[in-house]
Design a protein that fits this description.
- The protein is mostly helical and about 300 residues long.
- The protein contains 15 helices and no strands.
Length: about 300
């Protein structure tokens, strides 16, 4: 891939990310005018009395379409869209085993359509998911008999490990670094959730995702010590910027996740300057996701 050309385009696009001015405009708008104001700021297509979710979806569709036009290497988009696939896979398995609704809706921004996923998951027909056939074959065996929460955790674990082993490992330095940081955060959150719910190490072992910055065996060892010094021990294995998140913190999963996101956002400067990699693209995509989240937060805070 021609990194310099693509990253030059991405850096120009990054200037369109919302700053404090746009957020302030949204904060000052009435709830009934919010979506129109958002469209006036350039989001989505044209305003036609749509819901916020539809406008955010249109914005993400525009984003993917633009990247498809300039990126010859589909790896980064495959990985980005795979995160949507993970959500969709969970929806279909949960409906198949628990909800049993006749019709369901999924996020159509993933790599695979509803028909492709249902064919693989429900009918063991892997023709439409041939690139990831092994993932679905494994999942179809491993999810049997699980409760909804364990099923969700297993899907997360299996999908992330499949993504790393088949698409990320050894392909791009920035992409691999981002993945390892992301998996590390997921595992830390999992560690504290397991501690809070008084799970045993065997339960935790089944859910820990491989290929993070902290080895699975080390996480289990830390967990088995079973005390409130978990933060101090985990801090030994992660970058300084992430370590600071856990200073004077209690085991509050939501608060911890939000703080990790803030540090991750600051960490994007390291990716932006790595021009001979997917770094600037990763930074832009992550910042755009945070932008979506902030917009939703402003909207739902209105009465």
């Amino acid at each position: 891939m021609e990194y310099l050309y693509v990253n030059s385009f991405i850096k120009t696009k990054s200037k369109t990310l919302f700053d404090q001015r746009q957020y302030q405009i949204l904060e000052q708008s009435l709830k009934e005018d919010f979506v129109k104001v958002l469209c006036d700021l350039g989001y989505g297509l044209t305003y036609t009395n749509q819901s916020l979710d539809n406008v955010l979806k249109q914005e993400e569709e525009k984003l993917i379409k633009e990247l498809n036009l300039i990126i010859s290497d589909s790896l980064i988009l495959k990985c980005y869209k795979f995160l949507h696939d993970i959500t969709n896979i969970k929806i279909i398995y949960k409906n198949h085993y628990f909800l049993k609704l006749k019709e369901i809706q999924i996020d159509d921004l993933g790599n695979y359509s509803l028909n492709a996923l249902e064919s693989a998951i429900i009918h063991n027909n892997f023709d439409y998911v041939s690139e990831d056939k092994n993932l679905f074959m494994d999942l179809n065996q491993k999810v049997i008999g699980l409760n909804p929460k364990d099923l969700s955790d297993l899907i997360t674990k299996e999908c992330y490990e499949h993504l790393y082993n088949n698409y990320i490992c050894g392909k791009d330095e920035a992409l691999e670094n981002f993945f390892k940081l992301r998996v590390t955060i997921l595992n830390i959150l999992l560690l504290y959730r397991a501690y809070r719910l008084s799970l045993n190490s065997n339960d935790l072992s089944k859910m820990v995702i491989e290929n993070g910055l902290i080895d699975k065996s080390e996480l289990i060892k830390i967990f088995n010590e079973n005390n409130l010094e978990l933060f101090k021990k985990v801090k030994l294995f992660i970058p300084l910027s992430f370590e600071k998140v856990m200073e004077n913190n209690t085991i509050d999963i939501t608060n911890l996740n939000d703080k990790f996101e803030e540090v991750f956002l600051d960490k994007m400067i390291d990716f932006e300057t790595n021009d001979l990699s997917f770094g600037p693209i990763i930074s832009y995509l992550y910042k755009k996701k945070i932008e979506f989240k902030k917009i939703k937060k402003i909207y739902f805070s209105k009465k």
